């Protein structure tokens, strides 16, 4: 029984539809291989995502020693 194409199971010549089934699978495979466009993010969305990322991290964005020197001078 070829179950990949709807409606083929009710025909009596099921074995003749095996080629149709394989061609259907090849077409489906080609469609999935097509290159999808990457969705474009709005600039504010990117900025908010970066803000969340840096707030979660524990790394210092500026090196500690140069920042302390700068803070002492001013």
Helix content: 40-55%
Kindly report how far apart the N and C termini lie. 81 Å
| Secondary-structure-derived class | mainly alpha
- Average pLDDT score: 74
The largest sheet, given as strand count, sense and whether it forms a barrel, is: none
Q: Please state the CA-atom Rg, rounded to the nearest Å.
A: 29 Å
Rough outline: rod-shaped
Q: Secondary-structure element sequence?
A: HHH
Low-confidence stretches: none
Give the DSSP E fraction (strand runs of 2 or more residues): under 5%
Beta-strand segment tally: 0
**Number of helices in the DSSP assignment:** 3
Protein name: Histone H2A/H2B/H3 domain-containing protein
Organism: Papaver atlanticum
GO molecular function: protein heterodimerization activity
Describe the structure.
The chain has 74 residues and is an all-alpha fold. It has a domain at 43-73. It contains three helices and no strands. 0% of the residues are buried. This is Histone H2A/H2B/H3 domain-containing protein.
Summarize the structure.
The protein has 74 residues and is mainly α.
Task: Summarize the helices and strands and which ones pair or pack.
Elements: H1 18-33, H2 43-56, H3 64-73
Which key phrases capture this entry?
Histone H2A/H2B/H3 domain-containing protein, mainly alpha, about 70 residues, Histone-fold, protein heterodimerization activity, 3 helices
